[in-house]
Amino acid sequence: MNFYKLKDIITPCAPEEILPKGAEKACQYVAILTPQEWAENRAAFSIDLEDADPAETDIISTKAEVNYNSLTGSFLIPDRSALGNKSWRFAFALDDTGIVFIDASGKAREMTEAIAKSSHTKRPCLERFLYEFLEHIVDGDLQLMEGMEKELDSFEDRILAEEDRLDLERINRIRSQMRDLCIHYEQLIDMTQELEENENGFFKEKDLHYLHLFMNRMLRLSDIAASIRDHTAQVRDLYQTQLDVRQNRTMTLLTVITTIFMPLTLITGWYGMNFRHMPELEYRWSYPVVFLVCLAIAIGCLVFFKKKKWL
């Protein structure tokens, strides 16, 4: 179990400091327990969960649910270093006294300790902690997406330079990762909206602006992720267009070659017939004349195609 009190600064503390028996809690708190520790110590917390115990539900998304005297939910956080392959899952429950994370992965403790070390606010409160916790989830996402955007730009440059090799698998992977991030952001937006509604009055009105700030950031990140996802489709379309252009060039060249050789084939076929009475076969200058005629036809076709810009 890990406990932190939100007083002058965010500091680790003993359970007795925030869970005194028979007394009001002196300050708001953050508690991090494993599912087993939560099952054993749930009665020590004042959070009234009724029948909505977050530790007893399967975690398939990031969400928040309003209960009569509490607010419960879960986090499904994709690992940014392995998007689509790994995620951290943990539940939470809160009221106006504090928040409890029920986490077997250790991710909630890691994030809370990072916040405790980096937070410089002079007035810690539950709203401010939630803001920093949510910010910590998406920390570095903008740089991650900027890197992907630059990578897609390099793919476009390579396509326009008509390079033969292009990593389509990487483009598809970026698209899949952006889709996962879009879903994640939408869930975070829904959760933040649920918190900002403040239906149970757990949050002070003067501190709700923290949640509003995070909401605005999530909307921007969601737009960027959607833009990059669309960019991958544009890169794939550009690559397919370039392939079609190359194919059309090849077909044009083959058509030109076929067109040039059609009259030449006719001439050679005509004079390749084995009739006895073909006077041209007896003339001394027949071969040079036929050769010059074929050459003139070939040159004339090339000039014609050049003027038509088919070559």
Characterize the biggest β-sheet.
7 strands, mixed
Low-confidence stretches: none
Q: Radius of gyration in whole Å, from Cα?
A: 36 Å
Helical proportion? Answer: 40-55%
Instruction: Measure the end-to-end span.
Output: 76 Å
Oligomer: single chain
In the CATH hierarchy, what is the architecture of the domain at 1-124 at level 2?
2-Layer Sandwich
Structural class by sheet pairing and helices: alpha+beta
Strands, count = 7
- Please write the string of helix (H) and strand (E) elements: EEHEHEEEEHHHHHH
Number of helices: 8
CATH class of the domain at 1-124: Alpha Beta
State the strand order across the main sheet: 2-1-3-7-6-5-4
Output mean pLDDT.
Answer: 86
Looking at the structure, the CATH topology of the domain at 1-124 is Beta Polymerase, domain 2
Strand content: 5-15%
